[in-house]
Design a protein that fits this description.
The chain has 90 residues and is α+β, with helices and mostly antiparallel strands. The chain contains two helices and two strands; from the N terminus they run ββαα. α1 crosses α2. The protein is rod-shaped and about 90 Å long.
C-alpha cells in the first residue's frame, strides 16, 4: 500500500521477443528459444518373442563361454551375448 492508503498496482513486464518461450524458476527468469517438443521413446514392449530371443541368446553365450572354460561361464557368457545383441539394435 502506498502512503495515501491506496493499493499500488504492480508494473507490467516487457514482453519477450517473438518466437521465444519464457521459463520461470525460483532463481531467475530466462528466455528459451522455441523448439519442437519431442516425445521420448519408451522401452520396447516385452513380448514372448523378445523373451525367447533373450533366453536363446543367453543360453548360446553361456554355452560358448563354458566351452572356452571361462569362470562363471553361464553368467558371463549370457550377459555378454545379450549386451552385444542389445548394443547392435541402437
Amino acid at each position: 500500500m502506498s502512503a495515501d492508503g491506496e493499493r499500488s498496482v504492480p508494473r507490467a513486464r516487457c514482453a519477450p521477443p517473438a518466437g521465444t518461450v519464457t521459463a520461470r524458476s525460483t532463481a531467475s527468469t530466462s528466455t528459451i528459444p522455441n523448439r519442437p517438443v519431442s516425445t521420448p521413446k519408451g522401452p520396447a514392449p516385452v513380448t514372448l518373442r523378445t523373451t525367447l530371443l533373450a533366453l536363446v541368446l543367453g543360453a548360446g553365450g553361456g554355452t560358448l563361454a563354458h566351452l572356452a572354460h571361462l569362470p562363471l561361464a553361464w553368467m558371463i557368457g549370457a550377459m555378454t551375448a545379450t549386451t552385444v545383441a542389445a548394443a547392435g539394435t541402437e
